[in-house]
Amino acid sequence: MDRQEARKRAEELVSRMTLEEKAGQLKYNAPAIERLGVPAYNWWNEGLHGVARAGSATVFPQAIGMAASFDREMVFRMAGVVAEEGRAKYNAASKKDDRDIYKGLTFWSPNVNIFRDPRWGRGHETYGEDPFLTTQLGEAYVKGLQGDAGTMKAAACAKHFAVHSGPEALRHEFDAKASPKDMTETYLPAFEGLVKEAKVEAVMGAYNRVNGEPACASPSLQKKLRGEWGFEGHFVSDCWAIRDFHEHHMVTTNAVESAALAINNGTDVNCGNTYLYIYKAFEKGMVSEQTITEAAVRLFTTRFMLGLFDQTEFDNIPYSVVECKEHLALSEQAAEESFVLLKNNGLLPLSKEKLKTVGVIGPNADSRSALIGNYHGTASRYITVQEGIQDYLGDSVRVLSSVGCHLFKDKTEGLGYDDDRLQEAVTVAENSDVVILCVGLDETLEGEEGDTGNSYASGDKETLGLPASQMRLMEAIAAVHKPVVLCLMAGSDIDLSFAAGHFDAVMVLWYPGAQGGKAAARVLFGENSPSGKLPVTFYESLKELPEFTDYQMKGRTYRFMEQQAQFPFGYGLTYGNVKVTAGEFKKCAGSDRSAEITLTVKNFGPCETDDVVQVYVKNIDSALAVPNPQLAAFTRVHLKPGENKEVALSIPERAFLVVDEQGAWIKDGARFDIYAGTSQPDAKSAALTGTAPIRIEADLKDI
Q1: What number is the average pLDDT over the span 621-635?
Q2: Which structural domain, as residue segments, surrounds residue 517?
Q3: Are residues 585 and 528 in the same domain?
Q4: Radius of gyration of the chain (CA)
Q5: What is the tens place of the pLDDT at every residue in 188-216?
Q6: Would residue 531 count as lying in a domain?
Q7: What is the pLDDT of residues 331-360, one digit of tens each?
Q8: Domain with 498 in it: what CATH number?
Q9: Within this chain, do residues 514 and 604 fall inside the same structural domain, yes or no?
């Protein structure tokens, strides 16, 4: 049903509730109201890359891996699987009146914060550092999850509104200060797109303050959200964020004041327990009944839109869809699309027929944790990289293995000497024709503050380097002088200077999901070509970046950086050799500055491959423009060897606008350089790929 009808029914239902009952519905674990036939409902569910924390489910690559695919359709389909499996699990649970946490249909995903600093531990939950890419993939997720039927299939939630991107250790007390220009240009576009274009049903407030105001009680943010953007859904606090008002932000003195401040400033449902004091706040005259009623109406509007009080077309989705063959195949395809090949001196793809022994080495080679990232579900089977290679090669090629070292400790066995598995790894390498070396991190080393008891840095990374134990392993393997493919399993920028200088091939697998090892084997042995692109910059060092707590964008991400990257945003090799050979730019009819570009793309390489065509725009007139060319359009293309294709892409008007110091989008400057290729138009990408995007000059002085 549409929102108008759902709201009308919600108003009627809420009108029959007592004030105490209305207030009770504003907790994330809303109780039943039996006299009105209202069952209990838990608002808290997760679905970042598959139904999470709710038992069996298809586990897709972590969000940063999905971002590396640059594939809207894949993200859309993945979100559709989340909705379908979520419905199946909800149907089964609700029939047994199981209303527990993680069993509802309100998924607190996607995370569309900007991954502005590589130290942030939760960055791998996002779609990377670029506002346009984040917006496009975030919109695809919301549309895929919510569906377009008469009844909403599941409800998405844009989080964390706004600006939030570390440090994790300070998030409960931190004031993220961002200029109006940075807010409009970088931090808010994804939220705006998800609200205005994708009609996201929920928005979650962040823990931090934003320019002095707690994000879950911010008049400025609510003015933007409900005023300028016309958001009509419900607003939820991050978990126990309202408690931070009086315990850490010190903007209130107790829970009653915090509850009042939050609900009076737009927070409808509290993840936490501070809204237990809502009724007390009413009794003290700090909250009106109308405000409580409005919050309850918004929440029940969502429940009616989900069809939770009706018979719906989704009620008969069977439990058998959970981890069905089609969903597992999609997860594997998503992983294959996400892998980013950073270096290849000709070693890849490997030939099964030319090998007798393969060595699989490293702490992430046989690690399930390295497959899944965080906010993950539970797969019925995990295929690690080691298992994937063993399965792929069967009995025809011998596979030797060694963990080589602990993920971060100096030894794997408590009674052993330091580096107790290092010599075994060297022996495996010596006896192998080729080595697959799997290093990196997992959610214990980069993740959410307090989530896994990380002893390193409250979830954040302190450096871009791998743990010392892994560096010693890499050095030892390099000294054997065997062909080596380094596979990085991590969710963020890692210093790969040693790997790039010493190994034949380097590929980023991210956290590739439960099918990740199967996908890795297929790509390593040439069944499919890698085709992912970096959704974040891999920096040479942290020295070139501002302080982690500085939220100014100057010097951050590919759009503002002044130094050369180690590996640039948008970069990634394939087994083919795809180039944009020609292009035609055309302004769209009308008064705005939107445009279309038609490109000719050819695969000059020997292998069939996907690749990502990318269009970047640089305003060469305006002093207000982002300093470097920025992504304005992209699409995936599949090409056989020697094949030509024409692709047409739309460039939105905002690519030709700038943001002034007051945070307004304006026309300023008429001359633009348009770059089209399979990377961004920086010198490092050209050096790494051996080719540069084509450049088209555009003059928009007439509009």
Answers
A1: 98
A2: 331-560
A3: no
A4: 26
A5: 999 999 999 999 999 999 999 999 999 99
A6: yes
A7: 999 999 999 999 999 999 999 999 999 999
A8: 3.40.50.1700
A9: no
282 in Cβ contact with 295 (< 8 Å): no
Note whether 514 and 59 are within 8 A (CB).
yes
Tokens of 561: 């950086």
The per-residue pLDDT for range 600-626, each reduced to its tens digit, is: 999 999 999 999 999 999 999 999 999
**One domain for residues 339 and 377:** yes
Neighbouring-strand partners of residue 269: 236
604 in the same domain as 553? no
User: Considering only 392-406, 447-461, 630-644, which range has the smallest mean pLDDT?
Assistant: 447-461
368, 515, 516, 379: which is closest to 56 by C-alpha? 379
Give 48-76 pLDDT, tens digit per residue. Answer: 999 999 999 999 999 999 999 999 999 99
pLDDT of residue 591: 79
CATH of the domain at 693: 2.60.40.10
Catalytic residue among 238, 460, 493, 495: 238
Token couple for 319: 């439990």
Q: Which residues pair with 601 in a beta bridge?
A: 580, 645
CA distances from residue 370 to 305, 439, 491, 514 in whole angstroms, order as listed? 37, 9, 10, 10
Residues 508 and 620 reside in one and the same domain:
no
Q: Classify residue 363: in a domain, yes or no.
A: yes
* Beta carbons within 10 angstroms of residue 318's beta carbon: 11
Structural tokens at position 423: 């010599």
Alpha-helix residue ranges (DSSP H) falling in 535-658:
557-560
Residue 170 lies in a domain: no
Catalytic site residue 268?
no
> What CA–CA distances, in Å, run from 165 to 61, 161, 184, 211, 653?
21, 11, 16, 14, 28
